[in-house]
Each structure stands twice: as structure tokens, then as C-alpha cells.
Write a structure and sequence with these properties.
By secondary structure, the protein is an alpha/beta fold. The protein is built from eleven helices and twelve strands. The strands form two sheets. Strands 2-1-3-4-5-11 form a six-stranded parallel sheet, sandwiched between helices. Strands 7-6-8-9-10-12 form a six-stranded mixed sheet, with helices on both faces. The longest helix is centred in the middle third of the chain and has 16 residues. The N and C termini lie far apart (80 Å).
Length: 347
């Protein structure tokens, strides 16, 4: 007798493949096939492989309606990540999928614990939204557990360690730095500083690399001295700005909007003005940056396009359809507002 939790039988008259056909092809009971389809524990690896093979041969698609997609994210307070998560949820909801937000922040419940708790709860895919996939030398236990249970996953803004071949959707951080530096250079700034996140964070490292390359293209020497690594957030931006001003910077490229807001606060606490004395460019493009005073010039990540591609990928993977692996880069957009102006003396 099939499990009570087994999916509804497909209508054989419609040409769709039901559990009975998969069970017959695999030479197993429908109850066993149901446990594999629903990714239940207690199934031997050899048996699971036989069912997966039969499903692939017959073109059986797992039903996904009513099941969960877990979104792992570290910075739940960052408006950009919240926006992407909300857009993913909106795109998946019409297909009957529900999203579950998993804040795997430092010191809290970590990703392996979430995976252990969710694998038997109908999770069909996991989205790593700038979480462990952004950390160099991240532990691979989470990914190994997902692969063992055949739960697909995708990444946003960070590739996975050990060359794991999965879909990743990222903003082009090198282009983002070029847009910010190019804008400030056109305004006459030459002592341009970079306030970035900690070393070992993939987006932060990429933004620093893009910054240094953009400065080098303009023959601006000593750029390394004008890079300050700090924590992501307002406090980190403030500390970085005060260091950069002491080193003579007249403009600051921040690695996040929050760091940019902190940089503005740091500039003001030193008795300087934005943009009269120091120009500041943020990164992310959170909606709130339009309403701060002065409105923040920023490099906007394409949250809408990122979320759409992630959602398409999740739907395909949940249905056991192939999705191109590797990293797909999306172009950011420079949004010029009121925190950037001519370099001092060039107005």
C-alpha cells in the first residue's frame, strides 16, 4: 500500500508517468518509490539509485505543489537580500511552492542544522542567497548532505567550494567597480578610496579586485593604500571612511549601501560634508537609499533579473529538468543621485 504522503497518481490517459510505472521499471514497491520521490529517509543508496534511474528513463517529474524551497541567507536585515528573497517567493508561489527563510547568521543556527531539520519536510530545492557560498574555504558538509538526498541547490552572488558544478547567478562585481570609479574619475576625483568587506568574502574580494583594476586603467597609482577592509554594515563603513580620509581620499566607493551610509556618517563626524568635501558611492541599490539625505548615488544590483532566473532554475531542478551549471553574470546599473559631486577645487 502506498505511503499516505505519496503524491497523487498521474492520469495515465494523459500520457503522464505515474508511480506504478516507475515501480514496475525499478522492480520495487510503490511505497518505496514514494519514499524516494518524497526524499524520505530510510532508503538504501542502491535502492534510491534504482528509482532515480527509472524516473529518468520514463521521464517522471516529481510533483512540487505544496512543497518548500529553503532560502539560506546571512544578512536578513539587508534590504537588498530581503528584496531578492521576496521576489523569489512571488515568482514561485503561482507554481504552488512555498519559501522558507533560513537566517544562518554567525552564532545562530547554522546551515547543516537547517538541512537536517528540513530534508524530510518536503524541501525540493535550496537557494544560497549570499550565505556560505560567499565564504572562501566554507565547510562542504551542507552541500554533501543535499547531494546525498538529491536535493538540488543554486547560489546567488558566490560560487561554491571545490568546484561544485551547480547554477550560480551573480552581479558582475568587476563591472560594478568600474562604473563607480569611472563616475568619480569623470568628476575629477583622483584620490578614490574603497571601503570593502572582509577578506575571504567572495563579493568583497571581487569588488576590491574590480576597484584596483579600474584604478590601474586610469593610471591612478598607490590604489592599494586606499583600500580598507572592514565589516559589512554601517559601523564598518564609518570606520573605513575615517581611515580613508586620513589617507587623503576625496571620494569613497563602498561595497554595500549600508557601508556607504556609514561612510557618510564618518565623513560628517570629521567635520566634512557630502558631497562638498567627499563623494560617496554605494552598492546594492536598496530602495531606501533614494530617501536618505542626501539621496545615495549607488550601483544597483538587478534584483528583479536575479530573482527571476533563480526561480526559473529552482522550478526546473525541482522537476528534475537540466539547468546549465556555472556562474551567470548580470550587469549592474549606476544610479547617480546627490552624494557625488566634483572633486574639491574642480567645481
Amino acid at each position: 500500500m502506498p505511503d499516505a504522503a505519496s503524491p497523487h497518481r498521474a492520469d495515465t490517459a494523459s500520457g503522464k508517468v505515474g508511480l506504478s510505472k516507475v515501480a514496475a521499471r525499478a522492480g520495487l514497491s510503490e511505497a518505496t518509490v514514494s519514499r524516494v520521490v518524497n526524499r524520505r529517509q530510510g532508503v538504501a543508496e542502491k535502492t534510491r539509485d534504482a528509482v532515480e534511474k527509472a524516473m529518468a528513463e520514463l521521464g517522471y517529474e516529481r510533483p512540487v505543489r505544496g512543497q518548500l524551497v529553503a532560502i539560506m541567507m546571512e544578512r536578513v536585515t539587508n534590504p537588498f537580500f530581503a528584496d531578492v528573497a521576496e521576489r523569489i517567493e512571488a515568482a514561485l508561489a503561482p507554481h504552488g511552492l512555498r519559501t522558507l527563510l533560513c537566517p544562518a547568521f554567525p552564532g545562530g543556527v547554522q546551515e547543516p542544522a537547517y538541512v537536517d531539520a528540513m530534508v524530510d519536510k518536503g524541501v525540493v530545492a535550496v537557494v544560497f542567497l549570499s550565505s556560505s557560498n560567499t565564504v572562501a574555504m566554507a565547510r562542504t558538509r551542507t552541500y554533501e548532505r543535499l547531494r546525498l538526498r538529491r536535493i538540488p541547490y543554486v547560489g546567488v552572488n558566490g560560487v561554491f567550494p571545490d568546484g561544485v558544478a551547480v547554477p550560480v547567478y551573480s552581479t558582475d562585481d568587476l563591472l560594478a567597480a568600474e562604473l563607480a570609479v569611472g563616475h568619480l574619475f569623470q568628476l575629477g576625483h583622483r584620490a578614490i578610496g574603497m571601503a570593502s568587506g572582509p577578506a575571504g568574502n567572495t563579493p568583497a574580494d571581487r569588488r576590491v579586485r574590480g576597484f584596483l583594476e579600474a584604478m590601474d586603467r586610469r593610471a591612478l597609482s598607490d590604489a592599494h593604500r586606499l583600500v580598507v577592509r572592514q565589516s559589512f554594515g554601517v559601523e564598518g563603513g564609518q570606520a573605513a571612511a575615517q581611515t580613508l580620509l586620513a589617507r587623503g581620499a576625496t571620494a569613497i566607493v563602498a561595497a554595500s549601501d549600508f557601508m556607504a551610509l556609514g561612510a557618510i556618517r564618518g565623513v560628517r563626524r570629521l567635520g566634512c560634508s557630502v558631497p562638498g568635501d567627499v563623494s560617496v558611492v554605494g552598492y546594492d541599490g536598496s530602495a531606501v537609499t533614494e530617501f536618505v539625505e542626501p539621496p545615495l548615488t549607488t550601483v544597483r544590483q538587478p534584483a528583479d533579473r536575479l530573482a527571476l532566473e533563480v526561480s526559473r532554475s529552482v522550478l526546473a531542478l525541482a522537476g528534475r529538468r537540466e539547468v546549465p551549471v556555472g556562474e551567470l553574470l548580470f550587469d549592474p546599473e549606476l544610479v547617480v543621485r546627490a552624494t557625488t559631486g566634483p572633486a574639491p577645487g574642480r567645481a
